[in-house]
């Protein structure tokens, strides 16, 4: 048992300490931004008492997704690159829809 705990400790040290660099910081910031999209969506939905996707959700999606794409390209991870590249286009398109809706709502009021 102690052997396995030591192996886990060594693995965690390698992953979180030995490999830590500015690219890791970028990846962590990107992941934080990506996570914040769910937080703002959850708060907006709780306030409205229904499922709501606020503008900030798409802003955090695009910001976090783009930074994650840059990180994935640097790390040369084809699975991560493919997923984030497609998602980035989806976030841009949804931001276009949200901006169009905002302009329409402002013109009506």
From TrEMBL:
Residues 26-97 form the Lipid A biosynthesis N-terminal domain. The keyword Transmembrane helix applies. The chain crosses the membrane at residues 20-40, 52-74, 80-99. InterPro entries: Lipid_A_biosynth_N (IPR011499), UCP028440_lipidA_biosyn (IPR014546). Keywords: Membrane, Transmembrane, Transmembrane helix. It comes from the Bacteria. The keyword Iron does not apply. Pfam families: LAB_N (PF07578). This is Lipid-A-disaccharide synthase-like uncharacterized protein.
